[in-house]
């Protein structure tokens, strides 16, 4: 599954780069730029069971990765990203690979709104015991261009898919759901 996600991200980024290089008539509103990003991140796992209530566990950490900004018009862009998040608690770390594919609306020269689906994949097999490793969420956020190259962005992604592995025999009689939510705030650098 890691290979599939990585291949998909490379294909999207590679296609946009090849397309940009082969088209000599690209205007400034339809160019593609690339960048790197890093910052603070937190993840929350919310588990609920049969109307008996719910419990949430929060972990904090950091993220880093890369992005492409494919300008579709003066006001709209597509922003696929490939980001690795590392979360730790009591000396133990968990890794998550995040693949958001965001629509970007440029409200003005500096401020943008972001929204779109986000796939996440738990990279450590032992951390995913009892959970499905691949999940889907929906992300909303905002970005502010501090300079032409430096970007500040914040976003929240709430889990849409149930991550609980219902194949575990000891829990087969219960209606249990588990969902991941992510919060990120950080800086990016556009090349």
Automatic annotation (TrEMBL):
InterPro entries in UniProt: Beta-barrel_OMP_2, Enterovir_OMP, OMP/PagP_B-barrel
Signal peptide feature range: 1-20
All copies of domain Outer membrane protein beta-barrel, residue ranges: 20-164
Domain of life: Bacteria
Keyword Signal among UniProt keywords: yes
Alphabetically ordered keywords of this record: Signal
Presence of keyword Secreted: no
One term under GO cellular component: host outer membrane
Protein's recorded name: PorT family protein
Lineage, highest ranks first: Bacteria, Pseudomonadati, Bacteroidota, Flavobacteriia, Flavobacteriales
């Amino acid at each position: 599954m890691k290979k599939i996600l990585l291949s998909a991200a490379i294909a999207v980024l590679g296609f946009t780069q090849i397309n940009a290089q082969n088209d000599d008539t690209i205007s400034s509103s339809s160019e593609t730029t690339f960048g790197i990003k890093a910052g603070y991140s937190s993840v929350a796992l919310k588990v609920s069971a049969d109307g008996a209530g719910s419990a949430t566990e929060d972990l904090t950490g950091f993220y880093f990765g890369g992005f492409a900004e494919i300008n579709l018009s003066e006001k709209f862009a597509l922003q696929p990203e490939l980001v690795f998040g590392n979360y730790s608690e009591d000396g133990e770390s968990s890794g998550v690979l995040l693949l958001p594919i965001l629509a970007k609306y440029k409200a003005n020269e500096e401020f943008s709104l972001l929204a779109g689906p986000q796939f996440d994949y738990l990279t450590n097999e032992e951390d995913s015991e009892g959970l499905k490793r691949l999940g889907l969420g929906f992300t909303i956020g905002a970005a502010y261009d501090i300079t032409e190259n430096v970007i500040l962005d914040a976003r929240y992604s709430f889990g849409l898919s149930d991550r609980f592995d219902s194949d575990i025999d000891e829990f087969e009689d219960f209606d249990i759901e588990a969902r991941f939510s992510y919060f990120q705030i950080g800086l990016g650098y556009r090349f």
